[in-house]
User: Which sequence fits this backbone?
C-alpha cells in the first residue's frame, strides 16, 4: 500500500508525462520509493549547496528513470517544482535523460546504460584517497546490468574494498522488450553480486521502512561494497501499467488513461 | 617515445598530487619507480577499458587528473561510448595515453593496428587529439597536459623514432610548428610522418622542388591560422598520415581549406593508408613502405602531383 507521499511523488511524475506527452513511465514508477528514501532519509545533501564537497553522491545509472529523480530533486528544492512541467521541452533543463551541469543535484549524465557504477567506483575511490567521508550510491536497472561494463565495475569495486559504495538494483523483472528472464536471465542475481565481492541485501523496493533500515546500515559489511537488490514492480501504483511492458515508454496519454491515473494516484 | 611519456607521468605525479596513472594490464614493470614512490596513485585495474574510462571520469570529477594507458585500439574502439559520454560529454581532464598509434604493432595484426583512431577521437566534441613525432616532443607535450581543460587523446609512436623536433620551437597544444618554410609545396604532417616528410623534402630539393613542412602535432583543436599562413602562395598541399583516408589529418586540412579559402584552393594530395584493414605483418616501416609512405615514395607522389598542378586543367566548353 502506497502512502500519501508515494502517491504525491507519482502525481509529480505523471504530471511531467502529461505535460511532455512522453516519458519512461514504468521505469520511473518502480524506482520512486528507492529514490524517495535516499533523498528523504539517507543522503547527506543540501539543496542550497549542491556542490558541497562533503555531500553524499547519488548517480541514477538507469537514466531513463529520471522522472522519479526529477520529482525528488524538485520536491527537495534543488530547482522549482514548476520545472517539472517543462520536461523534454526545447528550453527545459529536464531532458529525457538527466544531464550533469544542466540539472542541479544530478551528479553525472546518464542514459547510455552501464556507465554509472564505474563512475561511482571513481567517486568512491576518490573519497578513500582524499580521506573524505562522503558515500556514493548508484541506482541501476535490472535490464541495465546486462551490460558487461557493470560487472567490470563490480570487480573493480570489490578489488578496492569500497565499503563507501552502494549499488541499488531496481529489480522490476521487466525490461523494454519483456521479462528479464526472457531477454537475458539474471538469476541467481544475489549470488552473482555476492560472488563478485559485494555484501548483498534483498528487500521489497516499495517498502519504505525496509529501505530506510537497510540504507541506514551501510556498509552492510565493513570492507565490502554493498549491493541492495530491490524487488519492485514496473509501473508500480498504476494498475494498467504494472508489469506491463507497453508502459516502459509512453508517447501519449489518452483521456481514459488519464482518468485511470486519477483513480490510482489522485487528482493531478 | 613511450618510455619518455610514461616517465613524464611519474615526473608530473611528483609535481602534482592530482596526477594518477591508471593502466589496464600493461607490460610488467610499467612505471615501477612511480609505483614505489606513489603506490596509491599507480593503479592497475585489469582488462576492462570500459570500466576504467568510467572510473577515471569519476576520479576526474573529484579533482584528479588520471593518465589512462593501454594499447591504442583498446583505448578507442573498445570503450568509445565511455570516452564519448563519460569523458567528452562531461569535459573531464582525463588523458588517454595510447601505445602503438598507427602501425606500431604491425606484426600483431589488424586488432592491434590503430588506423582510424584519429578520425573517431577527432569526431568527439571536447576531445583534444595530439600525435607527437618523437620522444623529445612527447616530453614537451606531457608537460602541457596537466592543466589542459577536457580530455586528451595522445597517440604515441613506437619509440626510438629519430629525434627531429627542436626545443627552440617550443610546444603548445593546438599550435602547429612550421619545420620548413614552404615553397611551391607544403607538406602537412602529424606524428612520426614528420621524419619521413623531412627526408622527402630533401629528396624533392634535389629535384629542384622546394617543399615546406607544417607539423600538425595537434590534430584537434586544429590550428587553422597556421595552416592558412603556411599555404600562402603554395601550389600543392600534401598531407601525410599513418591513418585511413577518412577523417584524419588529410580530412582536417581539407575541411579547413574549404571552410576558409572557398574556391581559391591549392591543389591537394592526401597520402595515407588505404581504406582497409592490413592483412600483412612485418614492421611499421615495411607496411608504411608497402602503402606508399616511405620517404622515397612520398617524394615521388609529390613530384608527380606537383607536375600535374602545373599542367593547365582541361577547360569545359559549351557546345
Assistant:
Amino acid at each position: 500500500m502506497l502512502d500519501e507521499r508515494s502517491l504525491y511523488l507519482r502525481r509529480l511524475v505523471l504530471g511531467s508525462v502529461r505535460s511532455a506527452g512522453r516519458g519512461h513511465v514504468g521505469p520511473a514508477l518502480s524506482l520512486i520509493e528507492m529514490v524517495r528514501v535516499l533523498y528523504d532519509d539517507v543522503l547527506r545533501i543540501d539543496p542550497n549547496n549542491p556542490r558541497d564537497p562533503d555531500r553524499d553522491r547519488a548517480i541514477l545509472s538507469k537514466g531513463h528513470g529520471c522522472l522519479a529523480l526529477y520529482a525528488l530533486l524538485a520536491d527537495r528544492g534543488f530547482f522549482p517544482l514548476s520545472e517539472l512541467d517543462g520536461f523534454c521541452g526545447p528550453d527545459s533543463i529536464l531532458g529525457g535523460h538527466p544531464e550533469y551541469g544542466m540539472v542541479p543535484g544530478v551528479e553525472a549524465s546518464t542514459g547510455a546504460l552501464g556507465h554509472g557504477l564505474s563512475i561511482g567506483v571513481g567517486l568512491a575511490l576518490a573519497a578513500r584517497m582524499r580521506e573524505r567521508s562522503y558515500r556514493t550510491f548508484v541506482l541501476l536497472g535490472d535490464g541495465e546490468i546486462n551490460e558487461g561494463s557493470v560487472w567490470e565495475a563490480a570487480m573493480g569495486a570489490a578489488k578496492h574494498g569500497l565499503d563507501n559504495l552502494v549499488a541499488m538494483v531496481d529489480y522490476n523483472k521487466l525490461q523494454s522488450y519483456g521479462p528479464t528472464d526472457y531477454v537475458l536471465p539474471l538469476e541467481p542475481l544475489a549470488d552473482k553480486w555476492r560472488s563478485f565481492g559485494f555484501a548483498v541485501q534483498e528487500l521489497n523496493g516499495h517498502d519504505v521502512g525496509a529501505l530506510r533500515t537497510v540504507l541506514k546500515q551501510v556498509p552492510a559489511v565493513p570492507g565490502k561494497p554493498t549491493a541492495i537488490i530491490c524487488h519492485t514492480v514496473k509501473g508500480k501504483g498504476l494498475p494498467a501499467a504494472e508489469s506491463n511492458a507497453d508502459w516502459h515508454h509512453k508517447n501519449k496519454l489518452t483521456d481514459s488513461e488519464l482518468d485511470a491515473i486519477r483513480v490510482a494516484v489522485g487528482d493531478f | 617515445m613511450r618510455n619518455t611519456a610514461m616517465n613524464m607521468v611519474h615526473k608530473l605525479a611528483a609535481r602534482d598530487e592530482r596526477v594518477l596513472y591508471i593502466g589496464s594490464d600493461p607490460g610488467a614493470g610499467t612505471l615501477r619507480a612511480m609505483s614505489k614512490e606513489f603506490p596509491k596513485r599507480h593503479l592497475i585495474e585489469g582488462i576492462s577499458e570500459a570500466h576504467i574510462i568510467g572510473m577515471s571520469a569519476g576520479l576526474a570529477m573529484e579533482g584528479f587528473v588520471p593518465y589512462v594507458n593501454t594499447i591504442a585500439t583498446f583505448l578507442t574502439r573498445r570503450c568509445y561510448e565511455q570516452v564519448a559520454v563519460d569523458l567528452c560529454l562531461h569535459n573531464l581532464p582525463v588523458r588517454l595515453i595510447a601505445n602503438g598509434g598507427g602501425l606500431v604493432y604491425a606484426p600483431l595484426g589488424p586488432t592491434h593496428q590503430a588506423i582510424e583512431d584519429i578520425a573517431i577521437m577527432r569526431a568527439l566534441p571536447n576531445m583534444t587529439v595530439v600525435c607527437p613525432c618523437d620522444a623529445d616532443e612527447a616530453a614537451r607535450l606531457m608537460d602541457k597536459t596537466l592543466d589542459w581543460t577536457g580530455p586528451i587523446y595522445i597517440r604515441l609512436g613506437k619509440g626510438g623514432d629519430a629525434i627531429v623536433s627542436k626545443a627552440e620551437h617550443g610546444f603548445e597544444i593546438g599550435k602547429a610548428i612550421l619545420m620548413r618554410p614552404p615553397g611551391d609545396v607544403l607538406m602537412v604532417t602529424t606524428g612520426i610522418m614528420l621524419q619521413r616528410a623531412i627526408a622527402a623534402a630533401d629528396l624533392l630539393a634535389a629535384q629542384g622542388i622546394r617543399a615546406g613542412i607544417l607539423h600538425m602535432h595537434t590534430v584537434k583543436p586544429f590550428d587553422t591560422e597556421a595552416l592558412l599562413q603556411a599555404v600562402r602562395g603554395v601550389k600543392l598541399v600534401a598531407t601525410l598520415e599513418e591513418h585511413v583516408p577518412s577523417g584524419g589529418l588529410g580530412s582536417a586540412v581539407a575541411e579547413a581549406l574549404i571552410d576558409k579559402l572557398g574556391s581559391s584552393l591549392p591543389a591537394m594530395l592526401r597520402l595515407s593508408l588505404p581504406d582497409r584493414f592490413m592483412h600483412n605483418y612485418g614492421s611499421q616501416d615495411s607496411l608504411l613502405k608497402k602503402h606508399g609512405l616511405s620517404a622515397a615514395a612520398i617524394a615521388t607522389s609529390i613530384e608527380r602531383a606537383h607536375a600535374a598542378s602545373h599542367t593547365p586543367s582541361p577547360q569545359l566548353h559549351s557546345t
